[in-house]
Predict the structure of L-rhamnose mutarotase.
Amino acid sequence: MQRVCFLLKVRKDRLAEYRERHAAVWPEMLDALSATGWHNYSLFLREDGLLVGYLETEDFKAAQEAMAATDVNARWQAEMADFFEALDGTRPDEAMRPLTEVFHLA
């Protein structure tokens, strides 16, 4: 199982709404994430907007590609794009760059 961690930056003026949206993620989005291999997926948000994402998957690239092929993901990413800083026209799910794991206590 591959462990993946990534960072994004949520706009400070949108933090409350971002939290609200993630308190009520669409059921079809949750189903799509599970069906495409996203497991143990968590998002952590700091008060300055730093977003830390963590997930486990067999193959991150394949999981991303499978999600990108779903209609629900296209709709979700379109709605979420304005919440983030510095995407430069990239969808949020395309801006996730995994951090290099340097330690893991098994």
Summary: The chain is about 35% helix and 20% strand. The beta strands are 2-9, 39-45, 50-57.
